[in-house]
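To: structure desk
From: M.T.
Subject: fold request, one chain
Message: Could you run this one when you get a chance? Sequence is below, nothing fancy, just the single chain.
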Amino acid sequence: MINTKEILIRNLVNFRHECKMSQSSLSEKAGISLGIVSEIENGHRNPNLETLDKIASALNKNVYDLFYDPSYSVKELTKQQKVQLISDLVNDISGLM
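Reply: Done. Structure tokens follow.
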């Protein structure tokens, strides 16, 4: 199944690079410490929703974008699989809080 933490890390780093931002500039723009950004990107911290919202805003994205996985096509899933996916994502996100 999808590893939500790895998706978050990959998207965060990719979006930051697309914006040509360092970890330091992202932390300043998001109003969070450099250490928090570094720990999230290195998989050592699970950010809460407030932090995710600040990061997403600083990157001109929404929180959904941070968890989007383009390799996983929802269109190909059955209704039951979609329900399971949503349940799994909610559980994963709850674990990040």
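Reply (cont.): The mean pLDDT is 88. Let me know if you need anything else for the meeting.
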